Amino acid sequence: MFDLSGKTALVTGSGRGIGLVLARGLAKAGARVAVNDLRDDIVGAARETLRRDGIEAAGAAFDVTDREAVREGIDRLERDVAPLDILVNNAGIHRRAPLAEMSAEDWRLVIETNLTSAFLVGQRAVRGMIARRSGKIINICSLNCELPRPSIGNYAAAKGGLVLLTRSMTVEWARHNIQINGIAPGYILTEMTKPLYEDPEKNAWIIGRTPAERWGRPEELVGAAVFLASAEADFVNGHVLFVDGGMRVAL
Ligand code: NAP
Q: How far is residue 194's CA from residue 152's CA, in Å, rounded to a whole number?
C-alpha cells in the first residue's frame, strides 16, 4: 500500500519548507520527483539537498503565477523527465496587514500566489492527466481556509478559495479518473511562520490554542500527501484533510 513507484510528481514551491519535505517524502514512497521554485539557484540547492539523501530529483524553476512560464515549465518537464502523475500545488506566501490598511498589491500578490497558481499549474498539468485517464492533484490549503485571523485576510480568502477550487476541479475532472484533494496544515515550523514562533506572545497563543499543545513539523504532512497521491485514495475526491493538532475543532 501507498507505493508511488513508477509515478512522477511535481511539487511547486519546493525550494524549502513544506514543499521540500513533501518532495522528499513522495520520493521515499517511490515517486520520481521534480522540485520547483522561482529561481534556478534555489531549485539547484534543493536538488542538491535531496541528492545528499540519495534522491535524484528533477527541477524546474518557474513562477507559478506566470501563465506562460507555467506552460513552458510543465511542458519541458513532461518532455524531458516524464508525464506528470502527481501535482502538489504548494507554493504560497504571506503579506500580513490589517484589511483596512492592506495595499492592493499585497492583496493581489497573495491571491495570485496561493490561489491563481493552483488554477494555472493545475490547468496545464491536467491536460496530460485527462489524456492518460489518471492523475492526482493535492492542493496545500491551510487551517485559515476556514478560520481567519486578523492581518491575514488576503491569505484566508486565497486558501478558502483554494478549497472551492479543489471541489470545482473535482466536479469537472473526477470523471477522468483524476482525484483532487487538499491538505490543510495547522501551524507548522517553517520560514513562513518564523515571525510567529520568534514572537513569544504569538508562540504562546499558538501552543495554547492547539489541543496538541505544540507546533507541527513539515514531516508530519508527508503521510497525508503520500496517501492522497496513492492508489489507496482512488475514491477520495474533493476532500480536505486537516493536519493541525486539533486546532480546527477547539474553541
Ligand atoms: P515557505 O517556507 O515560505 O516556502 C514557500 C516556498 O514557495 C518558498 O520556497 C517560495 O520561494 C516558494 N514560492 C513563493 N512564491 C512562488 C512562486 N510565485 N513560484 C514558485 N515558488 C514560489 O512556506 P511553507 O511554510 O513551507 O508553506 C508551504 C505551503 O504550505 C504554502 O502554500 C503555505 O501557505 C502552506 N501552509 C503553511 C503553513 C505553515 O504553518 N507553515 C500552514 C498552513 C499552510 P521563495 O523563498 O523564493 O519566495
A: 15
The CATH number of residue 33's host domain is: 3.40.50.720
| pLDDT, tens digit, 9 for 90 and up, residues 71-108 | 999 999 999 999 999 999 999 999 999 999 999 999 99
If one residue of 190, 196, 214, 244 were mutated to test the ligand 1 pocket, choosing by the most ligand atoms within 8 A of its CB, it would be: 190
pTM: predicted TM-score of the whole model, two decimal places:
0.99
Residue 222, domain member (yes or no) = yes
- pLDDT tens, position by position, 121-141: 999 999 999 999 999 999 999
Residue 245 Cβ inside 6 Å of ligand 1? The answer reads: no
Q: Going by DSSP bridges, is the β-strand pair 86-89/240-243 parallel, antiparallel, or unpaired?
A: unpaired
Does residue 130 line the site of ligand 1, with CB under 6 A?
no
Domain count, the chain: 1
Contact between 34 and 12 under an 8 Å Cβ cutoff? The reply is no
Domain membership flag for residue 205: no
Percent of the chain with pLDDT over 70: 100
Cα–Cα distance for residue pair 148/156, rounded to 1 Å? 6
pLDDT, position 214: 98
In a domain, 18, yes or no: yes
Q: Is residue 83 part of a domain?
A: yes
What's phi and psi for 152, nearest 5 deg? -130, 35
| Residue-number span of the structural domain to which 175 is assigned | 8-189+217-246
**Residues contacting residue 196 through CB under 8 Å, at least 6 positions apart:** 187, 202, 203, 206
For residue range 163-173, what is the model confidence (pLDDT) as tens digits? 999 999 999 99
